[in-house]
């Protein structure tokens, strides 16, 4: 306790020159420190503020999280690249600090892609005041369980977290894209959350629009959701069905007659069970839209192609439907690995957040590196704005700020200021845009999604230069997808 007291007395002595008054104020400061300690406040200035990155880190140990390591081949490359990029940005490139206190990136928090584990992680991070921000790379189902713990002021958190619940913990959500996962805010609260993945309703509209343009101009779809991430899969499937019915186009029959038709869903499955084959081929399906994991997407695509190719050998009028996979399976695993040959996926379409050419670059540059770098820049920009506005915003959040400021800012002050910077983005009209030192200005819509997010469409094509014989090619607004050079 004596180090904080010495700091208090030193600061007060600069203001109060009279020895008697200086001693009185120093004694008062000591008394306040003792009272504050019993009240649950720690007056020792923090050595560092921590940013936590939460996601699925299987096999990724703290001492091997950076550089080349085995976890990069486990399908969670986006999470690993995210951690690397944020740590590099905050600790090496900008050496970010808040009010003179360094900001560091904590060891990765592995939620095992499990909602129950994600809630435990959220409770830990919310309780431990040294954490001032969370970057959440999680599925919509996982995020829906964890976000209320991070974001709300609710009194019931006192029983879970401590007798004096800490302020909400700002969250930058990079993965979960369902628009309905945010908890209802407390009265008068603006949830301290920023969302960097394109919303599922926009993704569904993009998929439906592209579906009727590509390949064989499919218009009768079988929609399949695997249920592994139900908050995501069911919402996206439902929105796709609605958006598909809104797609209209003109068809011409053999006699030259034209008619306006709409896209339609002729079958909708909420499991991986393929319907009875004769019924499936008689439904007139010319497109399949799958929402789920890359493993199940691979199995379904191979099964569908095999079923329809066998039917085509019997009836030449049967055609193999085009297959579109949602963004969640967009990973190198679709191209094969040393354990399995994924022949039969040629021509399958895949939604994605990044351009195929970017994704197929070497490992240090490719994958989701561009998304990770952009997320790191936004996290740094948010902290930069919090630092420049600290003395302006902190007193508005706490009436005791200037008194406590004598012995240094607290973790609660840092959380409150970051919260306030986010609130500025959603005032009406916005009070201050999120402007970064590089000149970029970032804005968000009323649903907390970043403006300007786009979608991409890939096609799996043969490539003898690739170790497994395939690669992803970018499709441009319904144009044929050629192999990327």
**Main beta sheet: strand number and arrangement?**
7 strands, mixed
Number of domains: 3
How large a portion of the residues is in β-strands, by DSSP E? Answer: 15-25%
The rounded Rg comes to 27 Å
Shape: elongated
Specify the helix fraction band: 25-40%
CATH class of the largest domain: Alpha Beta
C-alpha termini separation: 64 Å
Tally of DSSP helical segments: 15
CATH architecture of the largest domain, by name, is: 3-Layer(aba) Sandwich
Overall mean confidence score, pLDDT: 80
Question: Can you give a write-up of this model?
Answer:
- It is built from 15 helices and 18 strands.
- With 485 residues, it is α/β, with parallel strands linked by helices.
- The chain has three domains: 2-38, no CATH class; 49-198 and 366-442, 3-Layer(aba) Sandwich (Rossmann fold), CATH 3.40.50; 200-352 and 455-475, Rossmann fold, CATH 3.40.50.
- Strands 1, 2, 3, 4, 5, 6 and 7 form a seven-stranded mixed beta sheet that branches. Strands 11-8-12-13-14-17-18 form a seven-stranded mixed beta sheet, with helices on both faces. It has a two-stranded antiparallel ribbon with strand order 9-10.
- It is elongated.
- Residues 1-10, 12-17 and 61-75 have low confidence and may be disordered.
